[in-house]
Amino acid sequence: MDNTTFGLTMLLVGMGGTLLTLWILAVLISWLTRLCQPRAKGGRHE
Amino acid sequence: MSEAILNALQALGAGAHHIISPAGVPNLVMIGVALAMFWLAIRKGVEPLLLLPIAFGCLLANLPLSEVMDQGGFLKVLFDMGIGNELFPLLIFVGIGSMTDFTPLLQRPYMMLFGAAGQLGIFLTLIVALALGFPKALAVSVAVIGACDGPTVIYVSNLFAGKGMIDTSMVGALAVAAYSYMALVPIIQPPIMRLLTTAKERATPMPPVKARIPKSALVYFPILVTILTGIIAPKGLPLMGAIMLGNFLKVSGVVERLTKASENEIANVSTLFLGLAIGGTMAGPEFLKPQTLMVFALGLMAIVVDTVGGLLLGKLWYLLSGGKMNPLIGAAGISAYPMAARIVQVEGLRANHQNHLLMHAMGANTGGQIGSVMAASIMLAILKGMGLI
User: Is A18 near chain B, with CB under 8 Å?
Assistant: First the structure.
């Protein structure tokens, strides 16, 4: 594999993959913090 | 009798003879480098925990006719037992994980995106290094300096060194470059922050976030990150797994002794051994070559571009949010924790005396810690997919 193909693949898939993975993680953290909130009376999240 | 005395005297003078001979010049230069590192660590406070052992290892390896890095030598034993198999960087990561509080990130999960933008330097530096003719493995190793994370740099570069893809002496150069620039973040970042943002943007107030994070969320968080990394980039699982293990020990609240051991004894002993062994790889004849200087130049570029990437995302966010996001926060999306967050706080206060950005920046900074390890893990996963490792 030549250096140009290698570098561009790393840039696109690497940076894109990092952004996408961290975005997924941010969404999962939002869900996690909501799920873990103590429930108020009546069963609804606080 | 006189011949025996002459031989004995010759043996005692062999070191002095070597150091003043042309073959000893590179060692002499590296002894100077070791002394400069001592000065930086002791007088200037530049990463003394790492720089002092590295400098001492460098001194030991460059004294004339030193055998510390020969088979069975003191530093070679340390290298084989903890660097050659990537153990020490991982043990340090356990310590870092146990010292890190991810609460600010859980309060503002979207700050994670700054942790991604702060890795731009890694990928752009990789392209520049390749354009300059660096072999692929060395280009990746240099680019990872942009992770602003010493253990990650050592882990990745040594992985390549172990497979003969880069020279072992480059591991030392890469580690010193990584730790030097991490220490220089307070000097590197502020001018870029002022250059890329307007006074009005820097003064943007950010109200405090008071969301309470339940303990159970803090406990599930390291498990969630570990599983996600394992699924997406299993090649980087040791890195992320180690940092999350340390954090899990801390937030579980039931293994105080292990947490304290991770923060103190394990991290300290690993740091000392890692520093000495890395310093041992800095023998003059192998270390002093133009490629080493280029490694330092590209490392600086990586950290500058990281900062630019974070600030540009911050500016975009400022525009999209109608001026509600202070773009300075973006500069904290690197792994230098908590230094980068403190710089944002200082720069924010300079622009607006009422503006306290620290906790927001801490969220971006811990996002940067995860982001840097994730970026390195993803790079390793791609390299494995390409069949290069």
Answer: yes
